Fold this sequence. Notes:
Family: Belongs to the PPC synthetase family.
Structural class: alpha/beta
Number of strands: 16
InterPro entries: CoaB-like_sf, DNA/pantothenate-metab_flavo_C
Pfam family, one: DFP
Protein name: DNA/pantothenate metabolism flavoprotein C-terminal domain-containing protein
Distance between the termini: 41 Å
Organism: Xylocopa violacea
Amino acid sequence: xxxxxxxxxxxxxxxxxxxxSEALLTTFVERQLQKNNKxxxxxSGGTTIPLEHNTVRFVDNFSAGTRGSVSxxxxxxxxxxxxxMYRVNSLEPFSRHFKGQKFLDMLExxxxxGNCTITVLPQYTENLKNILHKYxxxxxxxxxxxxxxxxxxxxxxLLRSACQALACLRNNAxxxxxxxxxxxxxxxxxxxxxxxxxxxxxxLSLQLVPKILAPLVSLWVPEAFVVSFKLETDETLLISKAxxxxxxxKHNVSNISSDTNNIIYEIIFLQLVIANMLQTRxxxxxxxxxxxxxxxxxxxxxxxxxxxxxxSIVNVLVDKHRAxxxxxxxxx
Length: 332
């Protein structure tokens, strides 16, 4: 029997620092509301599935948070404030450019007369200056809030809280759900308390993660512009699965007009699904809407020049979000 989303939250306690995260979310959104800023909630990186309460082993996925961290920078460039919800130790906006040894390669040590200074090598100075300037500007404008998660449970608690905080922004909120969320989990009451003995093969019983998109688009933040992602390895299933998601997360509601005629409106809660293949995700995506499929791709030459497909994705979404705001305000 599959667990409902209500049962999941009832059985899995919130993270220890959840109260602090809720307070940060509430105050950040209130400040953006006062400034009439549009806000993008970006989820990024993968979720872990613990195998023990005192976790030593867990199930993970390959996501490094590239799409989310890159996209956050482009939303910020387009004037959005960003809530960046990311997996601990995955890529972050701005610092992603200097991950690991790359940063150390930019530096040199200068020792003279007993004094030591560290400087940036000339060939990297301009690039580092530009990125640092953008980062400081975003902070000065109070447009970036970063929150972390590791496990599936932490992610789902934080996601619900972020959506509920964003509800007051109505159509000025866009959700860009790029995190690689596990499809399976082990219920908390079935986890071993301590490390599973390594004396032989173990049998794990996995349950399906409840479909959180359903309450998200209909209850928590119903007026937001919602974009989800679909990653596949079988190209023949990619578009059909993306379109199935669109059709699943919508419903019909009745409204009585001023002339008492009964008018049926189709409310599309999930506006877009971005479909991408594992093997080509950095070079091509398909934006699937109710009306059509729109392919965005980069040539090999563009990739070699360092162009990022996320710039084009975000540009399209910014235009569609603007049109969404205009259409919903007109209907109201």
